[in-house]
Amino acid sequence: MIPEAIKHRDDTHAVVVVPVLKQARAARSAQADGAITTSRSPESRLEEAKGLALAIDLDVVNGSIVPISDPRPATLLGTGKIEEIRALLDEFNAGLVIVDHPLTPVQQRNLEKEWNAKVIDRTGLILEIFGRRASTKEGTLQVELAHLNYQKGRLVRSWTHLERQRGGAGFMGGPGETQIEADRRLLQERIIRLERELEQVVRTRQLHRAKRRKVPHPIVALVGYTNAGKSTLFNRITGAGVLAEDMLFATLDPTLRRMKLPHGRTVILSDTVGFISDLPTHLVAAFRATLEEVLEADLILHVRDLSDDDNQAQSADVMRILGDLGIGEAEGAERILEVWNKIDRLEPETHDAIVQKASTTENVIAVSAKSGEGVDRLMNEISRRLSGVLTETTITLPVDKLALLPWLYNHAIVDGREDNEDGTVTLDVRLTETEAAELERRMGHGPKPQREDWE
């Protein structure tokens, strides 16, 4: 019988447990002195786990780091630590334990029995956050699909309703499928339906991308660890009203806006979902259609939170996910511009050192999205980077401008030509921003340059 005190535990009160395996600690200590640390420290993992819990309005009453030398297959943790956490649950009247580590279905079930409380692992917690944040139809479908794939492996026989149903005809029917098999079949049917719906969403997104390719606007994508300040920077340079809070995964669905660069060129800026270490594979697969916006981008802004002591490890996690998407190191060096954000939070001496280092480091701009410091330099660098990007457009030359045809064939890539009955010529061309501006001038639509060097 469950005691009354446990029956009435508050499941909004959470205890956070961060298991640290012995081999992980050994790997950290084996790193050479002065080497860049890319593995997460236990303290930063604990703070991040607390932040994830706060993102869904949980009250974290206790958090602890648990060293594990010998992981138990049945419970992961040892009996002594299980007893210790049970005492904490009683002390704080907590009904939820968050384990910042993957748990097998059996481990999750056994720990729930030991503690008489709900237990969720890191994957379950991230799925819960994504479920609350999704606002568009695509986001909702992606999260539900990821959640169902996660739950499919969690159907363990722990409740009495998962017993075998009666099968066959008549009163004395033979054994039919178990309830757990029926539940798994229903889950699989729902997964298949969701995948079909998502296929339609993906086709629609591909059509939108195809339409954008026909418009001569390069795409700039913001990527970065969650809470690095992407949405704040997005709002700063576009004037959009995207939700931007000091919270993990404050925004989930991708947002696209047009913006003008200093020299007048229009680009499309895309704000994507924040990355995180150990991102569940279910989510990576489900959100692949969304993350493909990054693959289409002409320039990728990797936003880093320089005020976070763990930013090196966060950067490594982001680059790992970009690699999984197909953006290798060689390609990334040409397409990725690092944006060192939140320099306003640094001490004056550190701030000056970071700004100086960024100014002498290739592919790096230091900014404060909150105060606006360095944003003008960032915009100028984006404009410089995209000045040579080829854009597609369709132009029609009137009869009195047909003399421009040789210039076009010399300075642009002509993909298609149609000679019209009225004597005009329609061309599908690809050209750079500078060449586009010169074409506008020659067509009589733009200002004359200061010097004539196009002949």
From TrEMBL:
Q: Where does Mg(2+) bind?
A: 231, 251
Write out the GO cellular component annotations. Answer: cytoplasm
Chief localization: cytoplasm
- State the coiled-coil residue ranges: 177-211
Give the UniProt keywords, A-Z.
Answer: Coiled coil, Cytoplasm, GTP-binding, Magnesium, Metal-binding, Nucleotide-binding
- Region annotation (Disordered) maps to 436-455
Q: Where does GTP bind?
A: 224-231, 249-253, 271-274, 341-344, 368-370
Q: Which PROSITE patterns match?
A: G_HFLX
Q: Where is the Hflx-type G domain?
A: 218-390
A Pfam family name for this chain? HflX_C
- InterPro entries, alphabetically? G_HFLX_dom, GTP-bd, GTP-bd_M, GTPase_HflX, GTPase_HflX_N, GTPase_HflX_N_sf, HflX_C, P-loop_NTPase
Q: Which GO terms describe its molecular function?
A: GTP binding; GTPase activity; metal ion binding; ribosome binding
State where the protein is found: Cytoplasm
What Gene3D superfamilies does its record include?
6.10.250.2860, GTPase HflX, N-terminal domain (3.40.50.11060), P-loop containing nucleotide triphosphate hydrolases (3.40.50.300)
Q: What does the record give as cofactor?
A: Mg(2+)
Q: How does it assemble?
A: Monomer. Associates with the 50S ribosomal subunit.
Q: Which family does it belong to?
A: Belongs to the TRAFAC class OBG-HflX-like GTPase superfamily. HflX GTPase family.
Q: What does this protein do?
A: GTPase that associates with the 50S ribosomal subunit and may have a role during protein synthesis or ribosome biogenesis.
Listed name of the protein = GTPase HflX
The record lists the organism as Rhizobium jaguaris
